[in-house]
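Students often ask why we bother encoding 3D structure as a string. The short answer is that it lets us treat folding as translation between two languages. Here is a chain of 169 residues written in the first language.
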Amino acid sequence: VVIPAVRIPREEAVFGMETEVSCTIFIYMCGSNLESQYGLASENIDELLGADIPDSTTVVIETGGTSRWWSSEWIAEDKLQRYIIRDHHLELLQEMENGSMGSGQVFGDFLTWGLENYTADRNILVLWDHGGSSADGVCYDENYGFDFLNRAELKGAFDQAHLPERFDL
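And here it is in the second language, the structure alphabet:
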């Protein structure tokens, strides 16, 4: 997997040269039964660890929402954890008490923390897990009765984080 560097289009570049800009990819990874039964979240993390990530790109991940991580040597089932990927390694940044990843408050806390600490020229948000379409919601936490983020909770979390503008993706 190769994650390309983000570049400013030629018309915005200084002196006619393309300039690399910073990018942060925020991944809110609710493992749910996709992880506990099939190890799909761990597989995706392993793919990220093997990726060629440019120095100008930061990848931060919050994990939770599953009863079992297949990569349990580095991810706890009974806590919410925040990581950064550095030099093909997962580095633990913060560990919190367990909470439902289907909670707007938990999601909002991740957004607030991430944007306060890792905002960049370009910001990308990934909600990793089951999705029930725009009519239902996303991030079904199997530790909390498959509680999920509905549209109102998503909007509340974005409001809580005081987003200055939308994410680029």
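Translate back mentally: The chain has a mean pLDDT of 87. Keep this in mind for the problem set.
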